[in-house]
Amino acid sequence: MRLMARDRVLEFPRRPLVMGILNINDDSFSGDGRLDVDWALRRAVEMVGEGADIIDVGGESARTNRGPIDDAEEIARTKPFLERFGEVVSKASPRDSEQVFPPLVSLNTWRPAVVHGVLDAGFDILNDMGALPNDSNARFCAKIGAALLIMHSQGEPKIPHRHVTYSDLMSDLVEFFAEKTKLALSAGVSGQSIILDPGIDFAKQFDDNLQLIQKLNRISELGYPVLLPVSRKSVIGRVLGLPNPIDRDAGTIACIVAGFLRGASIFRVHNVDAAWMAIRSMEMMK
User: Fold this and answer.
1) Domain residues of the chain, as ranges?
2) Alpha carbon distances (Å) from 203 to 103, 227, 272
3) Which of 110, 169, 172, 223 stands the most exposed, by the fewest C-beta atoms within 10 Å?
């Protein structure tokens, strides 16, 4: 298995990748973002030192209890970061020789207008949380050779979907990814530039989230790198009785171990340092 992202090629099997979450907003559910590009660039350098292979930058929180921002505001938050990212992180130091360095940069958005607005600034991966309703974002990725991360969900982003139920969750995911990868390929995205995300907490209920982690191998068997974005999610809070997301890192590590054993290739996390140590420990034991 191979992942191509612009001019970078990563060969699997290899140690799973750590994707550090970087929020250029002030309403992240985990309370770890700021409306400050200079701070975001400094934090990106810190994440590299902690072991991040990918920096996932987003200008808008996915929280459904917060209103959406407009396209221009999201571009204004993310484009300056993307324009300065390469120069700034080139001065960072990787944690070890297996780390992807310079790190890949991932743009976390779902709006085609935003993707188009920052296209000249460049990014290696588009983390599309919109469930790819059409081929617009796929065509943008094909244009610059960026990898496309396809997340499973139902309905519009920024709207709660607590009513959604599944008669067979994993079969639904397999069917969804078959349809969306076909759409991406038809738009010109390389089959080696696709990542799958089962969409923890998006149009999922508590039991659905647990089942996703338990049966993640059904998705990894599709032959694409799989992202497990479970960091500090509500399912962990419910299991452990922890209402504050920042207290959920131990539960996050448990989910990383479970995902590691079920074939996940990328882990999207808030606490990069802890995730790197967990993944390195698991890799050594394997």
Assistant:
1) 2-285
2) 31, 17, 26
3) 223
